[in-house]
Amino acid sequence: MGHEGAALVNRWFDEVWTQGREATIDELMDKTCMVHGLGDNMRGPEAFKIFHRAYRDAFPDVKITVEQTICEGEMVCARWSGVGTHRGDGLGFKATNKPVRFSGMTIARFQNGKLVEGWNVFDQQSMFQQLGIFTPPV
Question: Domain for residue 136, yes or no?
Fold first, then answer.
């Protein structure tokens, strides 16, 4: 997949997250796609859109930058970073209006130009600390 996979991942993060284009979810995500690591596993575009709307409500100005991609077969690994301002209540708590920086990694499996499975890890603890929602034990 190589460059095509990297281009799909870059498009996903730019259009879905930075631009907030929900239509890109339908274009790039297979109807049976399984998404792991963002709370409960989600299957398909409609389930993912619920998560997407909540995060975009909380961080309407979110900007995700893909720092690096590694491709092997139908798998693409992306290391990314994000910034945003907590302006909405979509995460289940009142907006703090504080800026945040966070980072993560995603492994995406594509078939025929569609995302069929994704695994995600990102530093939510650090994000919640920056928002003042979570203070780690000493």
Answer: no
- Cα distance between residue 62 and residue 130, in whole Å: 15
Pick from 29, 53, 59, 57: which is nearest to 43 by CA? 29
* β-strand pairing of 99-111 with 63-72: unpaired
Contacts of 31 (CB under 8 A, 6+ apart): 44, 45
Model confidence band, residue 2 (pLDDT cutoffs 50, 70, 90): low
Indicate the average pLDDT of the chain: 94
Question: Of 1 and 107, which is predicted with more confidence?
Answer: 107
Question: In terms of residue numbers, what domain contains 28?
Answer: 2-131
Residue 137: inside a domain: no
Contact 129, 102 (CB under 8 A): no
